[in-house]
Design brief:
This protein is mostly helical. It has helices at 3-21, 25-31, 38-41, 46-66, 72-90, 100-124. Helix 1 (3-21) packs antiparallel against helix 4 (46-66), helix 4 crosses helix 6 and helix 5 runs antiparallel to helix 6.
Length: 129
């Protein structure tokens, strides 16, 4: 895959994460009323698992796109995550708020992805790390 294509996929994914995380809270209330989806909304803290997965995938895409495998692989996605939480707390029309637990779920996903990338690199080329 060409580097330009990887960049397009990465930035489209980041835009998608911004879109989902900055949707007004009412949109999720409407989803919970859809009969086929109601089982997902009964799972405690499912949104934290989703946060973890979203930012874990973002971290892996960042690695694949830019071949970053140092501390920046944690810092960049975390800064994006932090910006989103600040926007949620600042943009009152979203009816959302800054959530420290969301931030920690995001960081958990970022950290898990970082560990996976590190193990992948060690397996692929042990003398490189």
């Amino acid at each position: 895959m060409h580097n330009k294509t990887k960049k397009i996929i990465f930035f489209a994914y980041v835009a998608f994460v911004f879109y989902l995380t900055l949707l007004p809270q009412e949109n999720f209330s409407k989803l919970s009323k859809i009969r086929q989806l109601e089982i997902f909304f009964e799972i405690d803290n499912l949104d934290k698992v989703v946060h973890c997965g979203m930012f874990g995938l973002m971290t892996i895409l960042l690695f694949l796109t830019y071949k970053i495998f140092d501390i920046r692989l944690i810092i960049f996605p975390f800064l994006i995550s932090f910006l989103i939480e600040i926007l949620q707390g600042t943009l009152t029309f979203l009816h959302r708020s800054f959530d420290f637990v969301d931030l920690m779920a995001n960081l958990s996903g970022i950290t898990i992805a970082y560990i996976l990338v590190t193990y992948y690199l060690q397996y692929k080329n042990p003398q490189k790390i």
